[in-house]
Amino acid sequence: MAVAGKGVVAAAVKPIFSRDLGEAKRRVRELYRAWYREVPNAVHLYQLDITVKQGRNKVREMFMKNAHIRDPRVIDMLVIKGKMDLQETIQVWKQRTHIMRYFHETETPRPKDFLSKFYAGHDP
């Protein structure tokens, strides 16, 4: 019994937008610049309790979180999501709380092991 396609080892996957890593990086830079330019408008429009510098630092942090990714298809998907998020921000389809969710790292993580819970005074 013969298996169809047995001679084919691996099929080439069609890229989403970028043909190579260099083109994907160019798209990321374009998106980063667009976000960087939009931060002052968003701070004013949404009446955020942050400075423009804090907003731009958060944009940089969000981009650097995915700096280790090298697959152009994954990068393209992240760029698409970033562009959709930017459009929602520009068109005011978001509310103030949606923007401020990015700035909640001041919450302390809950203790996980027994001694940490004991020292913190948790009694589950």
UniProtKB/TrEMBL annotation:
* Subunit (UniProt): Mammalian complex I is composed of 45 different subunits.
UniProt lineage: Eukaryota, Metazoa, Chordata, Craniata, Vertebrata
Q: Which PANTHER family match?
A: NADH DEHYDROGENASE [UBIQUINONE] 1 ALPHA SUBCOMPLEX SUBUNIT 6, NADH-UBIQUINONE OXIDOREDUCTASE B14 SUBUNIT
| Function in brief | Accessory subunit of the mitochondrial membrane respiratory chain NADH dehydrogenase (Complex I), that is believed to be not involved in catalysis. Required for proper complex I assembly. Complex I functions in the transfer of electrons from NADH to the respiratory chain. The immediate electron acceptor for the enzyme is believed to be ubiquinone.
Q: What protein name is recorded for this chain? A: NADH dehydrogenase [ubiquinone] 1 alpha subcomplex subunit 6
Which UniProt key words apply to this protein? Electron transport, Membrane, Mitochondrion, Mitochondrion inner membrane, Respiratory chain, Transport
Q: Which GO terms describe its biological process?
A: response to oxidative stress
Domain (Complex 1 LYR protein) ranges: 26-88
Q: What is its main location?
A: mitochondrion
* Protein's cellular compartments: Mitochondrion inner membrane
The Gene Ontology CC terms held by the record are: mitochondrial inner membrane; respiratory chain complex I
Q: What membrane topology is given?
A: Peripheral membrane protein
